[in-house]
Amino acid sequence: MIKTMKSEKRVNFEDCDPFSHLNNANYINYFLTAREEQLRTNNVLNIFEHVKETGNGWAVTAHNILYLKPSLLGEELEIWSRMLAFDTFRNLVEFVMLCPEKKQLKSVMHSQFAYISIKKAKPVAVDKDTLGLFEQVALFPDENISNIQMADRLKQIKTEII
Fold it and tell me: Can you give the pLDDT at residue 114?
């Protein structure tokens, strides 16, 4: 099973600020849209079908984002996403944005998601089948989410793109 999923995205005019840089808020949109598409196109999980079938889904509880270099208008980006760790109620996903042509790291984001009942709007335990999927795709399936530090991950990511 694929642990790191990758896709390409061109920086669009309407997503930029007056300096032709990708607007800070749009980094989150690019990351989350890429994740949903990557999960679906790699036949890992269709989150919308999952919600329809189970009545449960994932809600963002925290983002930690580093803006390292500006992403420029028209630039071709590569976006990576991968689950780092999980527990019964939540998971931690890492996003990486880079310009592969320049081997330039643009941004890294860690997002924590809680698994919630849509009807109750409260956290619920992830079902066994989904936990089994998480076991297959998580980089660190036995690691406690709280032990994963962005600074440590940034060092590792930099070694991956060289």
Answer: 97
